[in-house]
Design goal:
The protein is an alpha+beta fold. The protein has helices at 13-24, 69-78, 110-116; strands at 3-9, 28-31, 34-40, 48-54, 59-66, 82-87, 90-94, 100-105. Strands 2-3-4-1-5-8-7-6 form an eight-stranded mixed sheet, with helices on one face. Strand 3 and strand 4 form a beta hairpin.
């Protein structure tokens, strides 16, 4: 797991990011080139935590980063997840129980990924 996202309706994103930054005692910082994200710096050590502006209902979701997106999507589908969409190399799945998760290409540093990645048989 690499990322914890707080999804909020687009028109409430700025207010939500300010709330979560104050509530967690961290800085909120825009993500260059990705205006839908506001990173909550160091909110969960070891993970990216961000507010994401969405055109959908408010919720939380997790991102799983991988160096083989297709294989990880297939592995999670075999465990019972169902793909609901894909966008820019990221795949959104619904887990049994209804929770959303995204499978995303590696975005952490190579050193961090090598140290923390899980390898599946």
């Amino acid at each position: 797991m690499s990322t914890f996202l707080i999804d909020v309706p687009r028109e409430q994103a700025a207010e939500s990011a300010a709330f979560w930054a104050e509530a967690l005692g961290v800085e909120a910082e825009g993500e260059p080139g990705e205006p839908q994200f506001t990173v909550l710096k160091d909110a969960l050590p070891g993970f990216v935590t961000a507010v994401q502006a969405v055109d959908d209902a408010p919720r939380y979701h997790l991102d799983i980063e991988t160096d083989d997106v297709a294989a990880e999507v297939a592995r999670l589908e075999a465990l019972g997840a169902v793909e609901v969409s894909s966008w820019q190399g990221c795949h959104t799945l619904r887990a049994p129980g209804g929770q959303l998760l995204c499978v995303i290409p590696t975005h952490s540093t190579p050193e961090y990924f090598a140290e923390n990645a899980k390898t599946w048989p």
